[in-house]
């Protein structure tokens, strides 16, 4: 049976069934391989653990200040604190759902692609790419035996059990095993001697050697897709710097100190009226800090955006000026040559 496999290879239908099965198993393992959620400061999260804790402390101050010593409830402060907490948890929940939905969206697209492969595998004969692709290190197809014929199979569609044809100078498209027992990892070449043309310095393509594929490239590809992260834009980094660097580490501590000092000064200079008659004194720092910090985010972001765009414009202006000078030199040289 093994001799027949090496002579004819596996069938296209069997190869596609293996490919779809391995692909679906790899997609289902994404949940097990995904990294735990990081609640710290990161570029992909606007709301992080530090801001969450600060907001909870702020809400606690508001709740303490909502009740007087005589147990008289301030409805306004209570509603404000409740709305603050509800909005806080809702925002963090929405952020968590968005982070989770990105993985689900990738799973949905991967399953749609696998369903498409499964549907076209039933429509025989399967249309392979034409043979004759130049033999390069990064060639997109691989010669293999399927249905008793030599066909050009896309590297991503190779499966474990495929009989592939390797030349000594060609890198293996996947993990495979030669008939002599030599094992090649993906990217390795056959260790046999390669004939080199001394006139051109190029390797002479020798007779192709049969090898049995022992891995499925699609599984590794899907694993890298599942663990990949979104590429961040300049706007994402600007928001991260404004919220997590400037606001949390500079503005919030400064405003908190200013609020506490203002509360103390008001208590000391208030004369006979004591603020300790109610617990509202605990809510004053929270009421001062949050409204003051909210408008600053826009101005900080606008400043960083302008500075970033100015730097980009300077680079483009310099590059454009150098290109204009180069073109002027070329035109002058051409005109001079024409006149001569």
TrEMBL record:
Keywords: Membrane, Transmembrane, Transmembrane helix
Transmembrane segments: 51-69, 75-94, 250-269, 281-304
Metal-binding found in the keyword field: no
Domain of life: Eukaryota
InterPro entries associated with the record: ATPase_P-typ_transduc_dom_A_sf, TMEM94
Name used for this protein in its record: Uncharacterized protein
Organism name: Trichostrongylus colubriformis
Source species taxonomy: Eukaryota, Metazoa, Ecdysozoa, Nematoda, Chromadorea
